[in-house]
Design goal:
Structural class: mainly alpha
Number of domains: 1
Strand content: under 5%
Radius of gyration: 18 Å
Order of helices and strands: HHH
Largest sheet: none
Helix content: over 70%
Distance between the termini: 32 Å
């Protein structure tokens, strides 16, 4: 979920933006979040827990295989 939020902020507010200071960047992020929170939409999971855990197991196996090589 956090990755999705960061993706949305990046695509919808930060990409192609010009920020001359950290303060301007922070302001842009806070403004985006305030606007986004005015009409929040719940995230609806479409994957089952078995699907998610299966992908986690597959990723762990692939990582273990890489470490062996």
């Amino acid at each position: 979920m956090v990755e999705r939020l960061f993706r949305d902020i990046t695509e919808n507010r930060l990409r192609r933006g010009i920020f001359r200071s950290v303060e301007e960047l922070e302001t842009a992020i806070h403004e985006y979040l305030a606007l986004h929170n005015e009409s929040p939409k719940p995230f609806i999971w479409t994957a089952t827990h078995q699907d998610i855990l299966g992908k986690v197991a597959k990723a762990k196996a692939a990582m273990a295989k890489r470490q062996e090589a």
